[in-house]
Amino acid sequence: MPKIRNTSLHALGLLKLLYEHVRVSRSDLSAMTGYSAFLVSKLCDSLLKKGFITEVGSGDSSGGRRPTLLSIAPGLGKIAGLHVGRVNARMVVTDICGNELAFLKMPSRVSVGPSVAMPHLIDLVEKGLQKAGVRREELLGIGVGISGILDREAGTTLYWPKVPQWVNVPVRRIFTDHFGIAPEIEDTPRTMALAERRLGLARHAENWVYLMIGASMGSAIFINRELYTGSRGFSGEFGHITVKDDGPLCGCGNRGCLNTLVSATALIHTAQTSVSEGLSTQLWELCDGDVSKISVDLIVRAASAGDRFSIRLLNELGSQLGKAMITLVHLLDPELVVIGGGLAADAGQILLPIIRNAVSDGVLPLTANNLSIQFSELREVDWAIGASMLVGEKALEKLFLSKQEAAKGGVKKLESATRPKRDKEAVSI
Predict the structure, then answer these.
(1) CATH number at 204-377
(2) Which residue positions in the chain have pLDDT lower than 70?
(3) pLDDT at site 422
(4) Which fold has domain 6-75+393-426?
(5) How many angstroms separate the CA atoms of 340 and 173, rounded?
């Protein structure tokens, strides 16, 4: 099989850096790769001419002329992203740069079972494509973020705590059979973290952790900007750390997992039980005497209005999460922890100082001085965009290689299509 020329290998590496960093100058690309300014300029000129990249304004000047910023050309193609939670599903259609073209949110129907939920999710994607005016054959790829324990290689849900029907569900195969495209499958904390890395507070972080707090908990760990997945892909199950030996039974079968104490599900269950016992008059009035109406938003509203019971609930949750994070911080020494998800979005302003105080009281002083704890500023649509990012870089590579093949004939595949390394001997044309 003929090999692709080094110049094309370097060009693909630059494309991947531009995809990851969104907007980059030629001098930044040179610094990131170790390539000469001449080589970077020549490669970028070629990519501009072929329509892979575009100029998007000027960057900050350190003296002299302001540098021109480059970005991936958004018109290269369209991608779909699907974020599937236990309660809601969010679907987005984007261009290859991640710019939103259409967004839909609907109940996921996951709790009914996969025989109902999977056709419903496929229909949601179809409706999103229709809303964006994108034909199925125009799609470059589909990314699916789905909660639960996954076999990523097979594209199946092994099981889903609290949703017992989702055992060995072939999510990838079902989507492939319908769309003719094999989607990339990943768990929702990781897809949300990918959005945070590219669009949010972690854009410049090297070693950091994303914590998702919604109906359950999860996390994603980044070391030197790379997602750490563990030896079998199961890293990040922060919600299944045991924090109370005699605690409530968790969906995983153990007792006292962090999930059972720090999640929207746990918070709402405790509030419903307590309100039924007459422990909060304000919550009772806010839910009109129907405890099934109690939500995180309602608890936050009651706390903001001075309801002592709701304030105590949120204080206990924030303190419990902060104490659990102490172990995480001591083990990984991250520079940043970003907390996102539905509960974080609804209650973040109240919880953040509680969590920070709990962590600060428990970690080593030098660690505390160099740690930033923030609540995510991303929107729900960004969670789905994070799922689309599972396929963005691969779609970009596929487009690049197909154009190389069409232009030169017979070029099939890069043997090594990774981001460029600082290789001084590989910069000559």
Answers:
(1) 3.30.420.40
(2) 1-5, 61-64, 408-429
(3) 46
(4) Arc Repressor Mutant, subunit A (1.10.10)
(5) 30
